[in-house]
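so my prof wants the structure for this chain in the tokens format not the other one, which i didnt know existed until like an hour ago. anyway here's the sequence
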Amino acid sequence: MTRSVCLDVAVAMVLFGLTIGLAFPFFVMLLGVSRETALTPTTFAACLSAGIPPILLIADLAFELGVLMADHLPGVAEALPA
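here's what i got, hopefully its the right format
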């Protein structure tokens, strides 16, 4: 997709979250929620917005882990036997 693996993962995570958010109202109809309740704009908005905080948290943690690894990776490379 792009030249950045991190950006590719971020885009994939957002697309996956949006897909789940769009599919969830239809899934809850299988669980007995009425069509009138499940297919309202409010339900779709709630399902789509429910995935945003976890995606942002995971993206932030992945970024921080990448920074931490980049800071310590040169030391690890020097410690490895040739």
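also thought this was worth mentioning. The chain has one domain: 5-77.
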